[in-house]
Amino acid sequence: MAQISKTKFAIFGVIFAFFLVGIVACSQNKKNEVGELVIGTSPSFATPLQVAVEEAKKQGIQVKLVEFSDWNTPNITLNHGDIDANYFQHQPFLNNVLKETGFKLKSLGTGIATHVGLYSLKYKSLNDVPENARVVIPNDPVNQGRALLLLQQAKLITLKDSNNHLSKISDISSNPKHFKFIEVEGPQTARAVDDADLVFSYPHYLRLAKTIDPNDALVFDDNTNTRYAILFVVRDDYETKSPERAEQLKKFIQIYQTSPAVKKAIDNDVGDKLWFADWK
After folding, report:
1. Domain count, the chain
2. Does one domain contain both 135 and 209?
3. One Pfam match, by short name (predicted)?
C-alpha cells in the first residue's frame, strides 16, 4: 500500500511539474506576443529616447527607434500601422495634421517642451539686425505662428491678432524693418543659420546641426505653456486593438518621464534651462 502511495505521489509530482512548465511557457509566449515596440522619432530627440530604450530593456521592455528626417512621414507611417507610436510633434502641430489629413491619431503621453529662440551668426543683438534682413521661419502653419509670436515678442513685427498662435506671414500688420521672410521645413531652420541674417529655431535641432550654441539666442520665448510639449502619439484605436502593447508603451513613457538617466541625457542634449515639462 505504501508502495502504491509513493507511485501515485511520483506520478502526481510529474504531472504537477509539467503543469508548472506549461504555465511558464504560456506566460513566456504571452510576453513574447507583445514583441518589440517601434517608435518613430526625429534625430533631434533620439539620444534621450535611446537612453530610455536602454532603461526599459532592464525591465524587459523591448523598444526600437526609427528616425525620420522630415515632419510628414512619421504620421503617415503611424497612420498606416507600421509603427506603434511617434515622438516628434506637439499638440498644435498634431491638431493641424488631423485637420488636413483626417488621420485618426491621439496623444498617449507627454514628453518635453523647449524654449525657442532667434539666432544669428552675423549680429550680436536684435538692434544690430538691419533693414531688409533675411529672416528664416518654419513653413508649417503651427511653428510659423510660433516664430511670428516670438518676433512680435522681440518687438520686430506686429501681428493683427497678437495672441493668435496660428498667425501667418499675411497676418503681419507692421514690419518696420522690411524683413524678407524665408520659409523652410522646421528641421532645416538649424542649417539656415550659416546663411540668413536671423533664424527662428529650436535648441535640440541646433545642437544636432552644430551650427550655433543653442544657448546663444538673441532672444528666447518667454512661454512656459506646455502646449508645445512633444507628445508620444498613437493611433486612436491602439489601446483597443493592441491593449498589451499599449500597456508596454505606457510603461516606456513612464520610464522616459521618471528615469534620472533620461533626465541627464535631456539636460546634456537640450540644456537644463532650455526645457521644461509638467513632470520635471
Report:
1. 2
2. yes
3. Lipoprotein_9
Rounded Cα distance between 60 and 85, Å, is: 19
Residues 211 and 250 in one domain: no
**236 in the same domain as 142:** no
Does residue 14 lie in a domain region? no
3-state SS class at 102? coil
Angle in degrees, CA 40, 41, 46, rounded to 5 = 125
C-alpha cell recorded at residue 55:
532603461
Residue 218 shares a structural domain with residue 235: no
Q: Quick one: pLDDT band at residue 16, thresholds 50, 70, 90?
A: very low
Phi-psi region of 216 (alpha: psi -120 to 50; beta: other; left: phi over 0): alpha
Beta bridge partner(s), residue 219: 118
Instruction: Note the residue count of the chain.
Output: 280
The predicted-structure confidence for 83-111, as pLDDT tens digits, reads as follows: 999 999 999 999 999 999 999 999 999 99
Per-residue DSSP letter, 129: P
Which tens digit of pLDDT belongs to each residue from 184-241?
A: 999 999 999 999 999 999 999 999 999 999 999 999 999 888 999 999 999 999 999 9
CB contact set of 147 (below 8 Å; sequence gap of 6+): 116, 137, 138, 200
pTM (two decimals): 0.84
Same domain, yes or no: 126 and 208: yes
> Any residues with CB less than 8 A from the CB of 92 and at least 6 apart, and which?
142, 145, 165, 166, 227, 228
**Per-residue confidence at 34, pLDDT binned at 50, 70, 90?**
confident
